[in-house]
């Protein structure tokens, strides 16, 4: 079968993944209204192409936080990637590196920070962090990431607790016994709680360690703790964007966690313009959520994002064929972006302007 779009990878992934893993990957919170919205709203934005502008040389290169990239798409952090394929996070990270992209490692990974660093030494890697009740545990994670040559800390702010994904509850989803949350190996478990919060695949210890008391003060603490730039992931409002600037963050990922936390929040692409307007001149603003096509990347950039990330799409690639599957998926997306740029009249990313997109409502008079 020839894979020509993300949906082809997804279809194949559906046939190879166990039901509970598939449900864990694909689900959103609640009725999954926002899950659908994440993709749908991209469709409601139209591209206003310009022609006769010499598009013989398409250049997708960009620089993000001092890192040279071949194109403005990276891989978002997602938990437990060995559920998709034995190559897990290592394979996914190598694929990102070979594509000239960035890989964000989830804290809740099935390979440790050090294992991923060894498996993909040449990939530009960022580390996604949750803050734990035990601050020394958080400090250890940050320092391990620094030592392993990760280049930024991505603090996820939208998960003080985990959202309710109905199929995970129905499936009683948990990590199969042959896999483990590798970053927590050998860490002493104080005050273990073994209640139903462990549902959603996080073992009881880890979920009991998540700190719901977290506030922006802790962001200031983290910014102080590390020499790496801190990026906050999960911003959906101008108010939080302004706070991210105030508390010393280097960047923002506009995200609703793949619609896995609260249902009926805006699609990421809906929230993007207000964040860009509020802080876009001061901080680097990026986006994830619902990106499956080159024209989605184009629209996010036109609305002010400097880079986008894919979560599930990479998991589908990984499930299909490990590292090679992710490489194939990324090359489909990159080609699609190049074609979109050429057909919209842009040689390079800086040619993409805000007036090259318009909302559906502009036309529906
Ligand atoms: C996630 N996401 C996520 N985010 C995070 O900060 N830490 C994590 O451990 C995880 N884990 C996770 C698991 C799975 C299965 C999914 C699908 C997602 C959210 C992820 O980083 C990203 O925000 C979304 O996946 C982006 O949306 P799309 O590309 O999946 O539509």
From TrEMBL:
Enzyme class of the recorded protein, top EC level: oxidoreductase
Per its UniProt record, what InterPro entries does this chain match? Aldolase_TIM (IPR013785), Alpha-hydoxy_acid_DH_FMN (IPR012133), FMN-dep_DH (IPR000262), FMN_HAD (IPR037396), FMN_hydac_DH_AS (IPR008259)
The record's section on Pfam families has: FMN_dh
Q: Show where the FMN hydroxy acid dehydrogenase domain sits.
A: 1-362
An individual GO BP term: fatty acid alpha-oxidation
Q: Which domain of life is it from?
A: Eukaryota
Keywords from the named record = Flavoprotein, FMN, Oxidoreductase
Query: Known SUPFAM superfamilies for this protein?
Result: FMN-linked oxidoreductases
PROSITE patterns in UniProt: FMN_HYDROXY_ACID_DH_1 (PS00557), FMN_HYDROXY_ACID_DH_2 (PS51349)
Q: In the UniProt entry, which residues are flagged as the active site? A: 257
Whichever gene encodes this chain, its name is: GLO5
A single Gene Ontology CC term: peroxisomal matrix
Q: Catalytic activity annotated for this protein? A: 2-hydroxyoctanoate + O2 = 2-oxooctanoate + H2O2; a (2S)-2-hydroxycarboxylate + O2 = a 2-oxocarboxylate + H2O2
Q: What cofactor is this protein dependent on? A: FMN
The record lists FMN as bound by 77-79, 106, 128, 130, 156, 233, 255, 311-312
Amino-acid positions noted as binding glyoxylate in the UniProt annotation, renumbered to this chain:
24, 165, 257, 260
EC code(s) of this entry: 1.1.3.15
Keyword Iron-sulfur (UniProt): no
Q: Which family does it belong to?
A: Belongs to the FMN-dependent alpha-hydroxy acid dehydrogenase family.
Q: What is this protein called?
A: (S)-2-hydroxy-acid oxidase
Q: Which GO terms describe its molecular function?
A: (S)-2-hydroxy-acid oxidase activity; FMN binding
């Amino acid at each position: 079968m020839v894979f020509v779009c993300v949906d082809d990878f997804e279809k194949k992934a559906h046939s190879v993944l166990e039901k509970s893993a598939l449900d864990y990957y694909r689900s959103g919170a609640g009725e999954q209204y926002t899950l659908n919205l994440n993709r749908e709203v991209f469709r409601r934005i139209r591209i206003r192409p310009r022609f006769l502008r010499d598009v013989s040389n398409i250049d997708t290169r960009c620089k993000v936080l001092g890192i040279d990239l071949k194109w403005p798409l990276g891989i978002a952090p997602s938990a437990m990637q060995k559920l998709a394929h034995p190559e897990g996070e290592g394979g996914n990270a190598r694929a990102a590196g070979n594509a000239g992209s960035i890989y964000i490692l989830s804290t809740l990974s099935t390979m440790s920070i050090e294992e991923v660093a060894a498996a993909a030494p040449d990939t530009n890697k960022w580390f996604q962090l949750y803050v734990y009740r035990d601050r020394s545990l958080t400090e250890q994670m940050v320092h391990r990431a620094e030592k392993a040559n990760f280049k930024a800390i991505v603090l996820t702010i939208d998960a003080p607790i985990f959202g309710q994904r109905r199929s995970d509850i129905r499936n009683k989803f948990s990590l199969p016994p042959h896999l483990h949350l590798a970053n927590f190996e050998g860490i002493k478990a104080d005050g273990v709680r073994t209640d139903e919060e462990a549902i959603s695949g996080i073992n009881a210890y880890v979920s009991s360690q998540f700190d719901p008391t977290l506030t922006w003060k802790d962001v200031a603490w983290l910014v102080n703790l590390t020499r790496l730039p801190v990026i906050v992931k999960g911003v959906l409002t101008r108010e939080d964007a302004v706070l991210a600037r105030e508390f010393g963050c280097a960047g923002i990922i506009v995200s609703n966690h793949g619609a896995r936390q609260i249902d009926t929040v805006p699609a990421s692409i809906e929230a993007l313009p207000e964040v860009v307007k509020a802080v876009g001149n001061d901080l680097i603003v990026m986006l994830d959520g619902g990106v499956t096509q080159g024209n989605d990347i184009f629209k996010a950039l036109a609305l002010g994002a400097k880079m986008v990330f894919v979560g599930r799409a990479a998991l589908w690639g990984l499930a299909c064929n490990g590292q090679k599957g992710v490489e194939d998926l990324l090359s489909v997306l990159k080609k699609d972006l190049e074609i979109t740029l050429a057909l919209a009249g842009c040689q390079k990313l800086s040619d993409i302007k805000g007036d090259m997109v318009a909302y559906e409502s502009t036309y529906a008079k």
